[in-house]
Amino acid sequence: MAIDQHGGTAGIDDNVLMNGAAVDRGRGRGMSRRALLGAAALAAPLGLAACGSSGSGPSAESTAVTGAAAKGGTMRIARPPASAAESLDPASSLSAYEYLGTLYNRLVKQAEDGSVLPDLATSWESSADSVTWTFTLREGVKFHNGNAFTSADAAYTLAHILDPKIQSPQAGVLSPFLSTSGISTPDAKTLVVKLSSPNAEFVSLLMNYNCYLIPEDSSSTIGTTGIGTGPFRLKSFVPAGQGTVLANSDYFGGAPVLDAIQFTAIADIQARVDALLAGQVDLIAQTNIDYATSKTVTASSIATTATVKNAEWYVLPMLTTASPFTDVNVREAFKIAYQPQDLLDLAVYGRGTVANNNPVVSSDANYLDYQVTPDPDKAKSLLKAAGLGSPMQQLYTSTYDAVLTPLALAYQSSVKNAGINISIQTASADSYYTDVWMTKPFCVSYWYTGRPIDQLLNQIFRAGSSYNETSWSDAQFSALLDDARKESDAAKRKVYYQDAQKILVDSSGSIVPFFADRTTGLSKKVVNYKEYGFEFDYLHIGFKA
């Protein structure tokens, strides 16, 4: 998004999508997949939503291919817009995410296994106390305007991220231990960053997509010029509209396969899929298509799918500053009232992994294997003690992402046994992440996996962060994160992170039922599609030779 899951700008549709009585065909015992998908189809455009099997079935077939690509061509990519105010400034919370990887580079980038790789920094080292970090920068790199890349640009980028006027989501992650006074440039190819407190994970935080490097003194223009060092250069850009990038023949990593990429902003997920099946676009970005639609896509003569395992985690954020979620007992009740496996099976056909309200994926070295057993009876008792009895709670969803509404419906059905009555409302897809997310007390949303654990826990769950979607605040949680940053011993640092995860699961405002595989659609002509974490291989993707 780039909030990972951005929305747009129009007003909310206040019509009730469907109420509990209309869709709860499970009669208090949980809704069947057939009933759930039938209800979801009522809320979706006619056509693709009703196609495919209602049986359990395997994961969608993934037939995207690798191999020799023909040199040249223009790839047409449909993407969801951040908002009508979206920008090409990487530091912005409304950056047009898909453009970033084409136009810019960072100091470091993420490997497929999550480790840190060189990008514009060829090497780095830290002092023994993890306070001073020294980066050696790549030689011979030029920006799209012909200017040489130097350490002054790297220092300026970090200062730009920290600038309060920019309101970058990454500022909340870096500012507790980094200030502009700690950034120096001994020479054109050396960047030194002295932190105000130790952080053994510092270099991993620079993999974030807000950390793409921009030219010195470009803050007032970068949002429209998009001048970077990346494999493509900007030809045109219209916020929430269409834009084109052209191959950068002088790219230090070699010229890309494609001549150009054309981006078209389409807020509604079904409209993006329709454009793919009509041959109007070659790839749909930031799009997790549902099981039924994926079967329709793979049956198409011109399109197929590609799947990334456990690529996203879905969440029902409870705004802890709004009633009734100011009460930690109410939050606990809403967390233990549902059956996680039911939500995984109903919402995504089992294509993913149960999360047990923990957003840290199990493949992370710091993962805590901890879960609280679902207990509808205890949930009832907690709600009664809070004076709620059988609460009626609105839950917002939209068509921005194909999983949001099935997840809302599955949760609605699953919590009936705890006496919780959920009224589902749909909001306009192009305004969901401006008018609902972080505004309404209860909604459905998602994030991409791939964040280093320091980034994940501090950016999305720490008090004061602009991405803290539940406005949750816990002093002990924050103290543990600070202790982890200071600890250079990986085993000891793991203990701090695991203790923080337990607090998060027990008392935060986040209901995290599962990690989901992300299945997207692309033309059968496309080769070398590769995406993991926040990384997208724009350099090698192309069309079949």
Spatial strand arrangement across the major sheet: 10-11-12-3-13
Number of helices: 17
| Main structural class | alpha+beta
Q: Helix coverage percent of residues?
A: 25-40%
Oligomer: single chain
Compute the gyration radius: what is it? 23 Å
- Biggest sheet layout: 5 strands, mixed
Shape: globular
Distance between the termini: 33 Å
Number of strands: 23
What's the average pLDDT?
Answer: 88
Extract low-pLDDT stretches: 1-61
**Beta fraction of the residues?**
15-25%
Describe this protein's structure.
The protein has 545 residues and is an alpha+beta fold. The chain contains 17 helices and 23 strands. It has helices spanning 20-23, 33-43, 97-103, 151-162, 171-174, 202-205, 222-225, 269-277, 291-299, 328-336, 340-348, 376-385, 404-414, 432-436, 453-461, 475-486, 490-507; strands at 16-18, 69-70, 74-79, 108-110, 116-118, 121-126, 132-137, 183-187, 190-194, 232-237, 242-247, 260-265, 283-284, 303-317, 352-354, 392-397, 421-426, 445-448, 510-523, 526-527, 531-532, 535-536, 542-544. The strands form seven sheets. Strands 10-11-12-3-13 form a five-stranded mixed beta sheet, with helices on both faces. The chain has a four-stranded antiparallel beta sheet with strand order 6-7-9-8, covered by helices on one side. It has a four-stranded antiparallel beta sheet with strand order 15-19-14-18. Strand 4 and strand 5 form a beta hairpin. The two termini are 33 Å apart. The relative contact order is 0.19. Residues 1-61 have low confidence and may be disordered.
